[in-house]
Amino acid sequence: MGNIHDIARIAGVSAATVSRALNGHPYVSDDKRAAVLKAAEQLHYEKNINAVHLAKGKTDTIGVILPFVSHPYFGFILGGIAAEAERQGYKLLIVQTNYDILQEIDALNMLKLKQVDGLIITSRECPIELIEDYSEYGRIVLCEALAHSRLSSVFVDQFKAFQTALSFFTQRGISRIGYTVLRAEGKSSLARKKAYEEQLSRFHPEWVFDRALTIEDGTRIAGEWAAMTDRPNAMVITNDFVAAGFLLECRRLCFAIPEDVAIIGFDNHPLSGALDITTVELPLHELGTIAFQQVLLKDVTHHELPFRLIHRNSV
Amino acid sequence: MGNIHDIARIAGVSAATVSRALNGHPYVSDDKRAAVLKAAEQLHYEKNINAVHLAKGKTDTIGVILPFVSHPYFGFILGGIAAEAERQGYKLLIVQTNYDILQEIDALNMLKLKQVDGLIITSRECPIELIEDYSEYGRIVLCEALAHSRLSSVFVDQFKAFQTALSFFTQRGISRIGYTVLRAEGKSSLARKKAYEEQLSRFHPEWVFDRALTIEDGTRIAGEWAAMTDRPNAMVITNDFVAAGFLLECRRLCFAIPEDVAIIGFDNHPLSGALDITTVELPLHELGTIAFQQVLLKDVTHHELPFRLIHRNSV
DNA sequence: GCTTGCTCTGAAACGCGTTTCATACTTTAC
DNA sequence: GTAAAGTATGAAACGCGTTTCAGAGCAAGC
């Protein structure tokens, strides 16, 4: 199959000229260019992209860290990243971490080893200090609220979004409010608790349900909710899938929505539209698109995206 | 930051010994290994993975072609692929094609250019002949029924699965059956039409609804269905999301399920469980896992996976 | 005592394209 | 007519780790 030097020999030019001809550089005479192209054709020449990567010191590839690829929340972000990557001629190297720190470190090392030119972290478990240490190797974009001088960020203010959902209830005189979180110990759990305590007189730890990510989690939580003697009559739920599981299980157990329990989800996934669930729309696709744009920028940037509550009939 | 030759100089050994020491090869004396490790530490040495890829002629990376990353069907396959890739220490390079042939070719070229060691094609638009041409560059696994000598495959027999769904209706005396397809001109559409004509006396072209991929498509199709004067009273629907959209819109329009229209979906996504939709379970995660295993095998292999119909209350 | 077989090392080749620098020849420019 | 500017090209350096081959040193086997 040959390499660039074989072509050079056959075409009677130097390897430098072959490289220039093949990459469409100016300053190559028409006859030499033709000779190179002919020789390349003849040898069925194919570039070894790894040699290109080595020589150029970049790979036109961006790494994407995400905990679960099959979850729609991350799927939509990834969709936005992928669309923009394609538009700009970049490839994506994805690492599914399951929130395993070792996996996250593995992904960070791709940046250090020059396997990727930049890194987008859609969600993480490891401490920010660890990520900081990698910022010297390439641009890193986090999908979370952050004001960092070396790490870029793009986010929807989860704190405000949660406040908005709570207010939507309290303004309607609903104050017995429960909510769900993904991880009891996560940053956003703390933020939610803080928002809750700011708006409501009393915090009910038993009205906080954790491990809420999937439809099944919603189903499970509805069961736990139904089994309580002193239960909330409104729920702010992590995402529309959990909300869907919760709502459908409540219905199955013969509770009325929103009379027995009002529901607000997040994301505005089409599912919430189909189930008529009130939700806080998050521009996930756009978040991915912007994350990708930021990862290519020289400078560190921060980008807050808007959200809006969509009132449907689950409240 | 230095390279392997700098380390060699400082440690007073050759580059070959540095390479051996750093990669844990045997036959390196303890003192030289220690000297190398110390020098590497001192220089904050980091391997340039691109040089490794070039030297080794492989990248420990597998390419994954998928039309839409944010659709749960592909999300679950990708989840299976990613889980197995992690287990085996491989990285994944994903290309979202939107069924654009140019994008698909772009992805195939990653194999030719040695950017990936193998390729998994979850779904495609381009002709199989085109893909064949790339089989010499590395193992390619297709997620579709195929008996090819140079391309591996892993699949659920869509034809049989569709037949099973149809039989489930006909055995209950239901014969006015419509169905949905993703793309009117696709291979699976032809297969479905064939299966339909084998089991039912008359084929109704107007009872075939295409572009059925998302919840919204299901909603739209329900509207079209409801507007018909002569409409089927049973539907075999591409996947559980479309089925969910269809079912929920039918309910909204005050039709009863399954009395007015019975529904069978595909995938057994948790959503179908929550909505009590009868579905044909497809082992998508496992499909991904096996696809990944196959891509690493020396030999071409073919793998058919089982499906099973799960009877719920939409029929 | 001599052969066989390890253990350990380094030189050099190998994988391969890009880019800088120097050079030489043409064209414009004034 | 000469300087300045542009066009065209090749040699060589550069990016960098892996692996083969040859050889040296040393211990076990008979």
TrEMBL record, chains A, B:
| Keywords, ordered alphabetically | DNA-binding, Transcription, Transcription regulation
Could you give a GO molecular-function term held by this entry? Answer: transcription cis-regulatory region binding
Residue span, HTH lacI-type domain? 3-56
Decide whether keyword rRNA-binding is in the record. Answer: no
**UniProt xrefs under Pfam families:** LacI, Peripla_BP_1
Q: Which InterPro entries match?
A: HTH_LacI, Lambda_DNA-bd_dom_sf, Peripla_BP/Lac1_sug-bd_dom, Peripla_BP_I
According to the record, the signal peptide region is: none
> SUPFAM superfamilies recorded for this chain?
lambda repressor-like DNA-binding domains, Periplasmic binding protein-like I
This protein's source sits in the domain of life called Bacteria
Protein name listed in UniProt: Transcriptional regulator, LacI family
